[in-house]
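From the shared-data thread, chain only:
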Amino acid sequence: MPIDMLKFDMAQVHVDLNESDDLIFAFEILGKKWNAVIIDVLYQTDCRFSEIASAITGISDRVLTVRLQELEQEQIIMKSTHNFGKAKFTYKLTKKGFELAKEVQNIKKWSSRWRKDNDGNVN
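Structure, as tokens:
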């Protein structure tokens, strides 16, 4: 049914800006290329930089460095230092990051169920 714009009352439209802000915040993190994949890798196990880089095909070392710094700044991941003669860093999810990773797993399940294959068929 088409909306008669002359009779349409904007007061009937309610958008909860706080809920929108929450969604925007979440996708400012997950919307950046590679972030969800990095979170997914760290959900499986704590990793060193080289292990994350090996697990993600197509990500450059520079982009991985930037994404890890951003995720650390958002307190999604933390970097631990281990000294074995030479400093080694291990990345792991924080509590905040672990909760987000569980939601990434749900998005992964949804995608697996609904993405189209090369023939245009839904899996």
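The chain has a mean pLDDT of 86.
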